[in-house]
Specification:
Layout: E1 10-13, H1 22-29, H2 32-48, E2 57-61, E3 64-68, E4 72-79, E5 83-91, H3 99-119
Parallel strand pairs: 1-5
Antiparallel strand pairs: 2-3, 3-4, 4-5
Length: 123
Amino acid sequence: MAKEDRRTWKVEEYTAPNGEKPAVTFLVGLQGKNKREAIALLQLVAERGNQLRPPQSKVVEPGLLELRGHQVRIFYVFRPGQRIVLLEGTVKKQDEILPQVLKRVRAYRQALEEAERKAAGGP
C-alpha cells in the first residue's frame, strides 16, 4: 500500500477546563531514555493508530488505552475523525497502574467526552 493511501491519525492533547494539558506536562518533564521512549511511542501510534498492538499498546479498560514503553506509560483514547487524544502519562514504578492515576485519567476521558457532546449540540 502506498504511503499516501494509509489512513492518517491526528495526535492531540487533552485540555482540561482550566487550560492545563496533563499529557504535555508529563512529556515535557521526561528526560533521557524515558523521553526518547515516549517520542518513539507517539510516532508509532501516529503511524499505526488503532492497528498498534501489544507490547506497545494495551487496553486498560474499554475505550481507554495505554502506550507502553519500558517504564513510560501514556494514556490515550480514540475519538471520531481519526483522532488520538493523549490524556496523561506516568513513569511506571510497579506493574499496576496506581489507583489515583487511573481515577484521574478516567475523569479526563469523561470530561473530554462531555465537552465533545456539548460542542456537537448534545445534552
